[in-house]
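Q: Convert this sequence to structure tokens.
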Amino acid sequence: MSLQEVQPAQQDKKAIRSLVNEIYDAAVAEARERVWAHRFTKDLEAGTLPIEVIRGLILNLSTWAMEINASSRRKFGRNSDFYAHYPDLEELLADKAADEFTTPGPGGHQPTVYRLGEALGLTREQMIHQPLIPATRGYLDSIVWLFETGGPGGISITEEWYANWAQVWSKSLQKHYGLTKEDVFYWDLHAEADSLDEHEATTVEKGVMGHGMSNRYLSWRVLQEGVGMTPDLRERWLRSAHASVEQFLIWVESIYDAYDPRLPGRPLFNGASRGAETKPADPKGKVDAFIARGTELAEKHILNHPFVAALRDGKLSCDAVARFHEQWSRVVRRITSSYVGQYYHFIHIYKLHRDLEAQVTLRIGNEVEYPVGGGRPRAMDRLLTALGSSPKKALEQGLFIESNFFASFLGRLYLEGTLAETQANQMGNVIAPFARIVRESLVKHYGVKEEDCLYWDTYVEHDRAKEGGGALGTAAENRFALTTIYDRGLVTERPGWGVDYVGDTSIHLWEMFLTGCQRRLT
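A:
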């Protein structure tokens, strides 16, 4: 945001503070009611939550805490020119950063997570290399994406009621699971740091403001300066606050399901570390096996998903089909905008491997120019109109939580992933049969003209060797790129990530996206 956009407004301070408190109070009340009523919290309080589920949460929380703290500080840095004009905000955010990174000592809060995990029987190595379950990855990436792309201010509810949830953890782990007060210091630290303190609410000079209250203060002060003050502010913020509770509940429910040993095949994730095989003996065979696994997962979780089956059979309402495409449109735009930036991200590799460079530049050209000027998002705009919606309506519709998880995972992958990881998104390998189902249903059941299905036709053509403009189809391009990367020993994988993880998670978050559509549109 440029400084020219930040025009201080003569706002009614009392009215703004009242509005902020109303929204925060309502959101905190909803969180305390719904989170405390959830089986996860009830079982934790009663001491009946399986130890495997507790360990599973900590395995995911370890990476979660580190990445959230790192990215939230980046938001401070990106908006530093704005905050420099308001010393109270600059001081508040600097104090909060210092608290996260220095309390109770060097390393800040993160070492207390490791201490907690070790008391529960985990190793630091496991906590570092744990592949996050899809819901954790989507939830985390959606928040990081907001930090990376958002401006100053906004609304942040979770920290305030998280303090009370932390108290439940501290008491229950000591009472029912044999941990000491020293072991649970992470939870006590957050019970204190995130709590709402009415005395600290009146001034920043009293010391480091509680994290929950600092969020209220930041929201209030930025609005006071006229940033983000729109007629629909109350509605937008209440919707965002409700979504923050909803996505948290989706997360804890997914943790429970993933690690509950009483369910068949559980636990699914045990924190084992998998090192990268930088140059396998048979690169082609390894990639063939990888793609075969993606095809098998897609057949089970995508092509036979209940929502896809209902669409294929024409059992969805016209409105549901239109709203599904609105969600898909938002996801596609985020993926495309992120993908086209990866050339810059990996220019140091592409300039040494010109065949890879040739493919990625042709692919980028296709994304933004094929099948029509503006690329696939513009082809989707035409389809939205044919469905009785519009590009404007799609942009105005809020993303479903699961849609946001899916889009944020892929968006962040293309911005931060290694070269091998960015080529491991299985969507491109299995999009053609999905596109064929949607396209045929639109024409057969929903009266859409064939010429208006150009967006899905583009993906149906991936069964051919070529797309447009001489580039390989997405599936063929992914196969070529991954095989070449393995063959030349260019594979690097981040702790907890890797080619296999990205491949599986791209399918499972796509499945979550479809499940979100099913929940809300049927």
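The radius of gyration is 24 Å.
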